[in-house]
């Protein structure tokens, strides 16, 4: 009943994030390509999607309402206009998932009402390999079936963590943008290895594995990073400066998302 392979999925907007989600859907065999509709207005992008994925591509958003699951992967400023276009054509039992930042679930539900289950989620780039972390808010019209569909869909991209609506803008800085803070760390560690004489491919593998293993250690032991640091007596990083750097990055992203939300009048 809640098997995604039996459901039609429409992705409205197949740009950077929409393309990432589509890539993972197909790579994970969560849904056959015959069951997927991609709604994308740009002709050059339409051709690229057809050639790369072989899914049905259309310029009009309205046929998306025939799907069982509709994913909105469009810029924040387009979300409400598209919802207003689609809302009259939707029916009870459908699931609508938005991955756009700065448009709260409550605002989307004002447009959609209680007929359609609405979910707001923020996948990050590791979702491309099913290793994302996905803050998610479930709407008031969720049924057991739509909840199961949403969970299966999110699981294809990574680990979903349910949070309150009011935390989501902060999560843009903490998780959605989070990989952009970690990739430079990996690159810097690898470069230090290269400068010491380690081949770049080996140094990069070592550095990336340090980050992967450290994250797994926190999650699997349940111990705090501070406690786990004590396992290694040699600690040469200026921790206070690092803490300030990452805190500022999250705060800036949070502030920019709030500013975007205010600009949209939401």
Chart the SSEs and their pairings:
Layout: E1 9-12, H1 16-27, E2 36-39, H2 43-53, E3 56-58, E4 69-72, H3 76-86, E5 95-98, H4 105-112, E6 117-121, E7 132-138, H5 144-157, E8 158-162, H6 168-176, H7 178-195, H8 200-221, H9 225-229, H10 239-263
Parallel strand pairs: 1-2, 1-4, 2-3, 4-5, 5-6, 7-8
Antiparallel strand pairs: 6-7
Taken as a percent bin, the fraction of beta residues is: 5-15%
| Count of DSSP-assigned helices | 10
The CATH superfamily name of the largest domain is: NAD(P)-binding Rossmann-like Domain
The domain tally reads 2
CATH topology of the largest domain: Rossmann fold
How do you describe this structure in short?
The protein is α/β, with parallel strands linked by helices. It has helices at 16-27, 43-53, 76-86, 105-112, 144-157, 168-176, 178-195, 200-221, 225-229, 239-263; strands spanning 9-12, 36-39, 56-58, 69-72, 95-98, 117-121, 132-138, 158-162.
Describe this structure in words.
With 266 residues, this protein is of the alpha/beta class. The chain has two domains: 4-163, NAD(P)-binding Rossmann-like Domain (Rossmann fold, 3-Layer(aba) Sandwich); 176-263, Orthogonal Bundle (ProC C-terminal domain-like fold). Helix content is 51%, strand content 14%. It is built from ten helices and eight strands. The protein has helices spanning 16-27, 43-53, 76-86, 105-112, 144-157, 168-176, 178-195, 200-221, 225-229, 239-263; strands at 9-12, 36-39, 56-58, 69-72, 95-98, 117-121, 132-138, 158-162. Strands 3-2-1-4-5-6-7-8 form an eight-stranded mixed sheet, with helices on both faces. Helix 3 runs parallel beside helix 4 and helix 7 crosses helix 8. The two termini are 36 Å apart. The relative contact order is 0.10.
